[in-house]
Design a protein that fits this description.
9 helices; alpha+beta
Length: 231
């Protein structure tokens, strides 16, 4: 299935959107016609949020090297815009796909937010368990256990996960986990809390949780350079 509803990042706070190019392709009309509609009804569309866009550079060596504007429209803006289109068969099919994908995306983001809030409580409990254990790693107790948790839960290091998903250093990595990934991290944290309560040291905890294998192995892809979105 082709994704026609996108997000600018994998953050749980990202807003779903589609683009003018996607609308043109799936509604069976030209990019020029879509851009004309957006320009014509820009005031209406801006009642539902800022109209963002990205500038797409032309392929080197192609004729007409001027950058092209691609509009980003949120759900309300997209819904309004497609009411201005003729109700052709391609447009009707596009509307149904669009509704399903916006709904699916919102439900997934809602699930991730629920897991995020639940994970915050588990993280607090883990921090308290580490303090109570009195394990001394010269100030690196929390980061060392956290690295162990992610490696065991997802099969990758925190650093590689940040790099692959383009997660800014200032952002919490938990905001970029899927619901299943967040579940895996929480499960391993719960296990570490239990083992620390049994007075195990770090090496004993590590050996114990490694016996079960990786909870949810993630597949990483090389990061792509983020496109500049203007508002």
């Amino acid at each position: 299935m082709i994704n026609i509803v996108l997000t600018q990042s994998r953050s749980v706070d990202a807003e779903p959107f589609t683009t003018g190019d996607i609308i043109a392709e799936f509604a069976g009309i030209t990019h020029h016609a879509v851009n004309q509609l957006i320009n014509q009804y820009q005031t209406d569309l801006e009642e539902f949020g800022v109209l963002a866009f990205e500038m797409l550079k032309s392929i080197r060596g192609s004729v007409g090297g001027r950058p092209r504007k691609i509009w980003h429209l949120n759900e309300e803006q997209t819904t309004l815009l497609i009411t201005y289109l003729d109700n052709t068969l391609p447009v009707r099919k596009f509307k149904k796909i669009l509704v399903r994908q916006f709904t699916d995306m919102k439900q997934e983001l809602a699930r991730r937010r629920i897991k995020l809030e639940a994970g915050k409580e588990t993280s607090k409990d883990l921090n308290e368990a580490i303090r109570a254990s009195e394990i001394d790693m010269h100030g690196h107790e929390f980061s060392t256990f956290n690295s162990l948790v992610y490696k065991q839960a997802l099969g990758v290091s925190i650093g590689k996960l940040r790099q692959a998903r383009g997660i800014p250093k200032a952002d919490a990595i938990t905001h970029y986990l899927s619901a299943d990934e967040a579940d895996a991290v929480r499960r391993v944290k719960d296990q570490v809390i239990t083992l620390l309560g049994l007075k195990m040291d770090y090496q004993q905890v590590k050996s114990a949780i490694q016996r079960q294998g990786i909870i949810y192995q993630v597949q990483l892809t090389l990061p792509t350079k983020p496109k500049e979105v203007l508002q």
